[in-house]
Amino acid sequence: MDAKASQNAGRVMDGPTNPMVTPLLTDLYQFTMAYAYWKAGKHNERAVFDLYFRKNPFGGEFTVFAGLEECIKLIANFKLTEEEVSFIHKSLPGSCEEGFLNYLREIDCSDVEVYAISEGTVVFPKVPLLRLEGPVAVVQLLETPVLNLVNFASLVTTNAARHRLVAGRSKMLFEFGLRRAQGPDGAIGASKYCYIGGFDATRWFAEYFNVAAGRLFGIPLRGTHSHAFVSSFMVDYSNFNLQSPDEILERSLCSSDGSSTCEDFVTLVHSWLSKIQWLKSLGGIFGETNQSELAAFISYALAFPNNFLALVDTYDVIRSGVPNFCAVALALSDLGYRAVGIRLDSGDLAYLSSQARKIFHTIEKELGVPGFGKMIITASNDLNEETLDALRKQGHEVDCFGIGTYLVTCYAQAALGCVFKLVEINNQPRIKLSEDVSKVSIPCKKRCYRLYGKEGYSLVDIMTGENEPCPKVGERILCRHPFSESKRAYVVPKRVEELLKCYWPGKSGRSSEYPSSPWKGKVREELPALKDIRDHCIKQLVQMRPDHIRRLNPTPYKVSVSANLYDFIHFLWLNEAPVGELQ
Amino acid sequence: MDAKASQNAGRVMDGPTNPMVTPLLTDLYQFTMAYAYWKAGKHNERAVFDLYFRKNPFGGEFTVFAGLEECIKLIANFKLTEEEVSFIHKSLPGSCEEGFLNYLREIDCSDVEVYAISEGTVVFPKVPLLRLEGPVAVVQLLETPVLNLVNFASLVTTNAARHRLVAGRSKMLFEFGLRRAQGPDGAIGASKYCYIGGFDATRWFAEYFNVAAGRLFGIPLRGTHSHAFVSSFMVDYSNFNLQSPDEILERSLCSSDGSSTCEDFVTLVHSWLSKIQWLKSLGGIFGETNQSELAAFISYALAFPNNFLALVDTYDVIRSGVPNFCAVALALSDLGYRAVGIRLDSGDLAYLSSQARKIFHTIEKELGVPGFGKMIITASNDLNEETLDALRKQGHEVDCFGIGTYLVTCYAQAALGCVFKLVEINNQPRIKLSEDVSKVSIPCKKRCYRLYGKEGYSLVDIMTGENEPCPKVGERILCRHPFSESKRAYVVPKRVEELLKCYWPGKSGRSSEYPSSPWKGKVREELPALKDIRDHCIKQLVQMRPDHIRRLNPTPYKVSVSANLYDFIHFLWLNEAPVGELQ
């Protein structure tokens, strides 16, 4: 028994992040079928199902696979409670036999094997993301929850990766979608999967749920303030002056190093404001700034002198928001603090960010404040792939984008169509035919490989029968389109990567290599930390040939089958398809 | 203290359905703002926020409001745990004062008042769905979770209502979306809200979560079987005959009334199959049927003789699936059972359903089986509003539609843009201006009314200041467009309905009418049962003038403000908007 297997053997795995993900998060028909299988004495027949999708989302030619960890956590904890069994009993149409309920009480996934592609891997249509093998009735019960856990996870991760590709690697990307997400879990999942797809932070408490559960997502959090915060500061103009501001009661601020205290931070801000309002190099563009806004900024800075990030578009960005921000930031600078920057949430983001940047540079130069030009400019306001692309083409000075609705709801395409198809039962391959050739399933328990060329890019994915020899580095192999006779190519791979790895060997296993181990010899892949999944995803995208992942007219990546598998598919197809009769 | 208030007073309300909906399901900035408010001594200033949307979804002119019950459950249980407080402490940028943490430990919604439109009501842009009033810091903390709970709920309820309108009232509609929904909760929410919007059932265990929590959604469940169930039955053709079928071990079936037992149900099915294969009036359209499919149907019928619903398109609907179904259904009929019907999941649903119906009618007539013509035909396969509409125009014989992806992910428009705007603080009205006039907020704590005309249809919604007199039946009132000077109309309402009702009076309240009651005199509206919300929604749609809710070019419904409120909006607007300077 090797160290890895031993380590896994004793580990009790946590359940899915959302406690509502239980064996009952499934379609009723999975249980009606389980009963029919059981009645027919077929429930323990060994079945192999593939989970895959047929078309890449968002008009692209790639997808990022995600959701695996949640699936494995569901499978590891798959056990019906007595309450659930009695609920199933009540829900089945008609009455069912007590023997079936006893069967339900006993089932778990100890006899199920799960092979999967690593989470965060770039994947393509038709190649199984997960291969589940086990008693047909049990594996069928897993169909719906596993589809639910993979479909949105992969969709939103792909969406995040696409936003990252168009924004470029140097920009910060924040996920802002909680308020518009499709329910609480749409939001919780989105935060996790956007992070995997290359986002830098979320603005809400995604990781709380993991703190509570003793396991951290560890996604960075970011926060600023809203328009309402600014609007809530009302100023009696007749009364708001250096002597008697009406809102700010506590005006003192200790310097960053603790060595001194500024007793009247408000006055300090006002002195900076007059200074920059008359700065000649700014050409007098600053007008009378809005004093409620200034009061709001001062209050926020007094609360967060080390993290002052101001929303500057409540009134007028250039004439009020930016000068008010600069005055507060300069006052903070006097006390040894460094302001973070501004956020724009409306208007022409390219123009406004460039103007703001010019002002920051001018202040750095004219007033000799080092680093002032590098203030972070954050932009939000219904951003999506298209607007990011348009901004990049126009030129802008935004450092950091906050993206919400379009990201987390996958507005451009709200669903990924993963399917779960029976490919083998009792060692007999099964094919699902359809008049639409793109819907024909690829039969057999399969192995899947990614073949790499000499440039380091991946060239093609190939599926083979389970017992076919593995493609070898330097050896020529014929890769065939699964359904199109004429599409085929020889490949001499420089590197071969097996895609499907064992993430759940089943506690009983079927190998006898290590009979004393509860895992019986099958080494289970570790579920990596979130950060590692994210790194893997980013690395994967770098390994792709750029034309496969570009936004406009991307080249389809090739997915193939071995010559043997091709022949077998077409043998089965002819056998199963009825000969039509024209009348 | 009246009976209703007393009943509510002692009631401890359950928390939100999803246990992950806690006070931390919010944006970090709500807590950074709370700290800044607290530091500035402003946290207890009394603020009024409106939650509303700006544009109806799906190109329509109406929306159905949903999500209220979950909001009230959140608000009723809004209390930070010690663990949450320490997490907030760690998450705030920089350090915060201990006094703030003590403040966080104490806050709840006892000083918050929530007025809302009833769940399931047809609503329109700009009119507040919820009005939250309370200490500004607390109400800001509610912003994000309340938006999350209302946005998707209202969107998917509206989507369901639109599907119901196009399908017509006589059809059954099933929600099939669990596997493609945006996460587990996207599915759980969708089932509940599709039911409110007029769906009849879900095919999965939505209500389980409520059984567990001791409160039932009570949405009906439906189930059948999948293609994989059919494919899993393999037949050795050389061996499958009446004497030795290889799959079906237990062939006996007791009659419906328990009076007799058919020892060989398989043989009975085969005899019916030969009979209908040679039925002249069917013109010999039935070919050799697929025997694995037949074995699957027989097994399913033996398990569910009272609920036999067969998926008939695994091979060939008319040549195999329908005759196999009919043979099993006729055999069941011999034993006093009544089959439910068939499901079609591919192909030309209009044509196939019509053909299947003809066959059912022919069998009823020729073989004298009463009711056989009325077999339920269920259809699924990526259905949406458009395909339902196209089917209706072509003519079809489908009784029941299963709708999944397009329904639950709101594929046609994946987000509703509800916003949460400050309209008053310390009794001072606030307005949020924007260069885009559709984004200007309507200031003031308001009352909202729906005015009905003599036909019984609703004519217009009108918002007034809180202290303006209520519009009166039979009295002429001027309704003004909030932003467009020239758009105004006199209305003499036949009925006046106040839209915003008190769903959470705050435990301390502010009225002294019933000083001994914890609710202090404000009668809280009951949260109705799910079934009642659904009935309310259906009734609401009937009360709408048909041109407002039709699919093609619907007429916009009018939303107005009183003359007083109009004047006040424009007074504030001029006061707040900076006078531009052209350079």
From TrEMBL, chains A, B:
Domain Nicotinate phosphoribosyltransferase N-terminal: 24-151
One Pfam family in the UniProt entry: NAPRTase
Function: Catalyzes the first step in the biosynthesis of NAD from nicotinic acid, the ATP-dependent synthesis of beta-nicotinate D-ribonucleotide from nicotinate and 5-phospho-D-ribose 1-phosphate. Helps prevent cellular oxidative stress via its role in NAD biosynthesis.
GO biological process, one term: NAD+ biosynthetic process via the salvage pathway
EC primary class: ligase
Taxonomic source organism: Gossypium australe
InterPro entries per record: Aldolase_TIM, N/Namide_PRibTrfase, NAPRTase_C, NAPRTase_N, Nic_PRibTrfase-Fam, Nic_PRibTrfase_pncB, Nicotinate_pribotase-like_C
Alphabetized GO MF terms: glycosyltransferase activity; nicotinate phosphoribosyltransferase activity
Biochemical pathway: Cofactor biosynthesis; NAD(+) biosynthesis; nicotinate D-ribonucleotide from nicotinate: step 1/1
Organism domain of life: Eukaryota
Keywords: Glycosyltransferase, Ligase, Phosphoprotein, Pyridine nucleotide biosynthesis, Transferase
Homology family: Belongs to the NAPRTase family.
Protein name (record): Nicotinate phosphoribosyltransferase
